[in-house]
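User: Let's play a game. I give you a shape written as tokens, and you guess the letters that built it. Ready? Here's round one.
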């Protein structure tokens, strides 16, 4: 599946538990030798009684707490499976509610409240105001990037405001910033350019993944950071390389709502020993894929 090009391999482990070693996750995630993905999603039984628990692994095998685009994709599958207009998904970041729209491919997810305190993001040192922290790369008198906004939307994000997205080579600076000592849990790095008070365009370096076509939590974090700083209104369209996401930071309860498209690309079978896979004839789109090896 994918959400605006942010792509996922999805397993249904609600009946048969699935715990793949890091080496196998990397093998399947490799775009040359395996299926290739930004994140691997394992749908499990929810300990809290939600419709499902969503476990998320990056391509490098690291487990993360949240993925907005994946939440929309899994929400769509669960709603198609149940026939209901909503689904509750448990993640390591908490319970997230997905709701359908007039278009079955388009899903809204309540991503909850952002975390804005320095120790919640987390940062390696205290900052009273996380709208712009002291961090820069490049010469002191002419930094390449500086004073990012930082937000946690289930995972840590640093947003650098730039005059144009091509002003900085994110492929070059992304790895360094992801692993900067300021971020003890690493960070997702976003370049953001404000187009108007209702539109922003961004490019994202995702921790454990690299450059990505879309990152839902980065879009949420960017919207929150822009609204906090008075750059946009509370309802804003975030343009990513893979397409647009509609974001709203509700004033009533502080929750962030994200709406965007989802796509089921194909179903198939994979050999867990080699990473090789083959596509199968389309099955019931409402059913999640089961972890079967072809060997």
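Assistant: Ready! My guess for every position:
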């Amino acid at each position: 599946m994918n959400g605006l090009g942010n792509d996922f391999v999805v397993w249904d482990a609600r009946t048969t538990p699935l715990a793949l070693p890091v080496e196998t996750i990397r093998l399947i995630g490799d775009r040359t030798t395996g299926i290739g993905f930004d994140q691997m999603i394992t749908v499990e039984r929810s300990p809290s009684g939600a419709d499902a628990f969503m476990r998320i692994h990056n391509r490098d095998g690291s487990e993360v707490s949240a993925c907005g685009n994946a939440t929309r994709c899994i929400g769509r599958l669960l709603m198609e499976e149940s026939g209901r207009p909503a689904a509750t998904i448990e993640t390591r970041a908490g319970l997230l509610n997905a709701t359908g729209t007039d278009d079955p491919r388009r899903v809204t997810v309540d991503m909850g409240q952002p975390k804005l305190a320095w120790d919640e993001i987390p940062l390696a040192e205290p900052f009273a105001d996380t709208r712009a922290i002291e961090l820069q790369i490049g010469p002191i008198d002419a930094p390449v990037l500086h004073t990012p906004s930082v937000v946690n939307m289930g995972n840590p994000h640093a947003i650098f405001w730039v005059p144009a997205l091509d002003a900085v080579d994110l492929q070059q600076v992304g790895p360094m910033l992801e692993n900067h000592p300021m971020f003890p849990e690493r960070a997702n790095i976003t370049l953001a350019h404000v187009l108007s008070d209702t539109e922003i365009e961004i490019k994202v370096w995702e921790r454990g993944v690299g450059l990505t076509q879309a990152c839902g939590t980065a879009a949420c974090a960017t919207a929150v950071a822009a609204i906090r700083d008075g750059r946009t209104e509370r309802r804003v369209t975030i343009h990513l390389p893979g397409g647009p996401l509609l974001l709203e930071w509700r004033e009533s309860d502080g929750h962030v709502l994200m709406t965007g498209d989802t796509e089921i690309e194909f179903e198939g079978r994979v050999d867990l020993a080699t990473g090789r896979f083959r596509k199968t004839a389309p099955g019931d789109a409402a059913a999640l894929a089961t972890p079967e090896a072809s060997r």
